[in-house]
Amino acid sequence: MGYAQLVIGPAGSGKSTYCSSLYQHCETLERSIHIVNLDPAAENFNYPVAMDIRELISLDDVMEELGFGPNGGLSYRMEHLEENLDEWLAEELDNYLDDDYLVFDCPGQIELFSHVAMLRNFVEHLNRKNFNVCGVYWLDSQFITDVTKFVSGCMASLSAMVQLELPHVNILSKMDLVTNKRDVENYLDPEPRFLLSELNEWMAPWFKKLNKSSIEEVVEYSMVSLIPLDLRKESSIQYALAQIGNCIQYGEDADVKIRDFDADNDDDA
Ligand SMILES: Nc1nc2c(ncn2[C@@H]2O[C@H](COP(=O)(O)OP(=O)(O)OP(=O)(O)O)[C@@H](O)[C@H]2O)c(=O)[nH]1
Ligand SMILES: [Mg+2]
User: Fold this and answer.
1) What's this protein's function (predicted)?
2) Atom nearest to 109 CA in ligand 1
């Protein structure tokens, strides 16, 4: 049985930075982890790249030959990958042992996990190869500044979860940039009634019915549970890793239960 994280979420939310911090964290613990680059447009890596999607075809080629811009080129590239996916992945995965832990650093185009079948097929392939996979969805704390942004972030995450049908964890990234804890505290474990009343306050009165069903939807799928992550703190990385571990039955870290979020306390950085 192998283990895998599929690191997904909007562009710039901190996925690749997390991958390199996670790599360093595991290296310190002498724990084996392999980071895979699934972003054809990526150029610089702060982690050793175990597998690299750019081996198949580069984004430059697609843009040049077919006249796509960067975003269209990426979508085309991912669909093209689908055709070669089984062969490439099967070949690459042969290099890994049964209990290896892989982390897939995905591109930030939202279409990839909302309506392109590629990632879903990718996950099915990993499942067939006996990997337990967790979708790790990234939300940038800098954008979760009010209830409307919180709900829209949750909805995007929900759409990824429904599309991928994977155990799912939401990470609130860049906690080091949060100077006022109160700004995000309201959204870490929020009361549905609090969310609804905030939303009703923000929105015009005729949105009340929609607000209610949006919050119900978000709450029903447990989307409201965000894991705050401060990459400066080993304990924060460890906590996120343990939560993800619980989802994929990776037992080793299950005993780390204390959520480490205290913007004022950097002692254990
Ligand atoms: N302060 C701070 N900055 C961060 C953190 N994580 C990422 N950043 C910055 O945010 C920017 C985007 O980070 P990336 O890790 O490249 O984001 P990404 O999600 O991989 O982006 P795409 O690959 O474009 O989808 C970079 O300038 C990072 O330095 C964090 O935890 N704290
Ligand atoms: Mg990236």
Assistant:
1) Small GTPase required for proper nuclear import of RNA polymerase II and III (RNAPII and RNAPIII). May act at an RNAP assembly step prior to nuclear import.
2) 25
Would the CB of 233 count as within 6 Å of ligand 1? no
pLDDT digits (tens, 9 = 90+) for 118-165: 788 888 889 988 899 999 999 999 888 888 988 888 888 888 888 888
Residue type, 244: I
Q: From the CB of residue 140, how many other CB atoms can be counted at a distance below 10 Å?
A: 19
Distances from the Cα of 89 to the Cα of 11, 85, 122, 230, angstroms: 24, 6, 9, 32
CB of residue 174 inside a 6 A radius of ligand 1 = yes
The CA distance from 167 to 144, in Å, is: 23
- Binding site membership of 190 for ligand 1 (Cβ less than 6 Å): no
Domains of the chain: 2-187+225-251 (3.40.50.300), 190-223 (no CATH)
* pLDDT, position 116: 62
40 lines ligand 1 (CB under 6 A): no
User: ipTM surpassing 0.90, yes or no?
Assistant: yes
Sheet with 2-8: strands ordered across:
49-52, 34-37, 101-105, 2-8, 131-140, 168-173, 226-228
Distance between CA atoms of 37 and 30, rounded to whole angstroms? 22
**Best residue for ligand 1 mutational test, from 6, 7, 16 (most atoms within 8 Å of Cβ):** 16
Which of ligand 1's atoms lies nearest the C-alpha of 39? 23
Any idea which ligand is nearest the CA of 143?
Answer: 1
At 191-233, the pLDDT tens digits run: 889 889 999 999 999 999 999 999 888 877 766 578 999 999 9
Nearest-Å Rg of the Cα atoms of the chain is 19
Is the Cβ atom of 177 under 6 angstroms away from ligand 1?
A: yes
13 CB near ligand 1 (under 6 Å): yes
